[in-house]
Amino acid sequence: MQFYNTLSGKKDEFVPIEAGKVRMYACGPTVYNFFHVGNARCFVVFDMLRRYLEYRGYEVKFVQNFTDIDDKVIRKANEEGVTYDEIARRYIDEYFTDARGLGVRAATVHPLATDNIDMIIDIVKTLVDKGYAYPVENGDVYFRTRVYKDYGKLSGMLIEDLESGARIDVSDIKEDPLDFALWKGAKPGEPAWQSPWGMGRPGWHIECSAMVMRFLGESIDIHCGGQDLIFPHHENEIAQSQCCTGKCFCNYWLHNGYINVDNHKMSKSLNNFFTVREIAEKYGYLPIRHFILSSHYRSPINFSKDIIEQSKSALERIFNCSDSLDFFLRNAPEGGIREDEAELVAKFNSARDKMIEAMDDDFNTGGGIAAIYDLVRDINMALSANASKGAMTVAKEVLCELCELFGFVEEKQSDDALIREIEDAIERRRIAKAEKNYAEADRIRAELLEKGVVLRDTAQGTTYQINK
Question: How far apart are CA 48 and CA 6, in angstroms?
């Protein structure tokens, strides 16, 4: 299994620190609003990575934080005249609503920044004691960026380039314009916690280091996030963490690419800024998940109405195939795999191998999904070619295995009254056809079609699909 490691700039063979176990951290949302489709890419992609690692037999401890104290959270609270934690709790709940819809499973731990103030203070104090950080008169504490000799290794940024672009203010309280805040002194009207440097709150970067160390240890296997976090967030995480512990912070850094909207950068000013909730209300959640996983995670992808419609149609093909297969297995005569079906069964099983081959090569989810499409094609052909129940049972097992891995599981809403009506109509149509009353049979089909019910006649009987 190989991943493109942002730190090395190449594909690296994945070897965990502890055999059979993976310690994995992903930067979570700042909880002041609903998350948008760009955020969703990070959540879906690294949920899929966790699923795949578990599928391959690893025991994964996955930590994803919530940034519940931040300028944006405070600003939103002030706008609404409520406390910061009321805003945070509201949008953490909304996060889980959308995440569940997208098939994103809860992390092993979802820590809050404000629940880890003590750990944050301990790290900052260690950095001050070691000379890597310094407090200033207003209660801020800054990290001495130049002291960490490997600064810029993750992003490829050179100190010289950063220095030339820095804005130097003669009134700046920092020793160096490149230094970044570990702790921020209290300001009027803002929440604050007691520290050795007075009342204040944590800087953004330090919270992730604290939560990694508390829940995963001083060295971890995988750290994930969006491409926009490489610099400065992840660069700063490495610097402060390794200076604190003297150990390698993380072995593999994985970053997903950007999402554009209609070939333009997503922006509120362009009115192309969409939350997941808005898209899901129109198209459902699973087409969003399919759209995100259909492309390689490092590539930029483009969101549009046409593309999400294509994802919706692709999922319908998978679900229709599954429904047809279920119908066949319920009605087909009992029987095992015939001798002439060895090649067919091998083809069904090869879908699993094709998926693994793609996913082991830098987590190519698009290639993995292509294996599902090939399997659906082979199943549909076999259903039309008098395959045995034994062979199609194998097909069902492989299809379920791959769809469950990718989170492509259809949520069916039961409407017992409608189902009884459809089944009654199918029986009346069967009788009409047996009596050669084809006009009545056609009338029943048309009546159901007006209600969004499409009938399919197969060798095992008539099945149906309800189009929403």
Answer: 19
pTM of the model: 0.88
Structural domains of the chain ordered from first start: 2-256 (3.40.50.620), 311-406 (1.20.120.640), 416-466 (no CATH)
pLDDT, one tens digit per residue, over 387-429 is 999 999 999 999 999 999 999 998 765 566 777 788 888 888 9
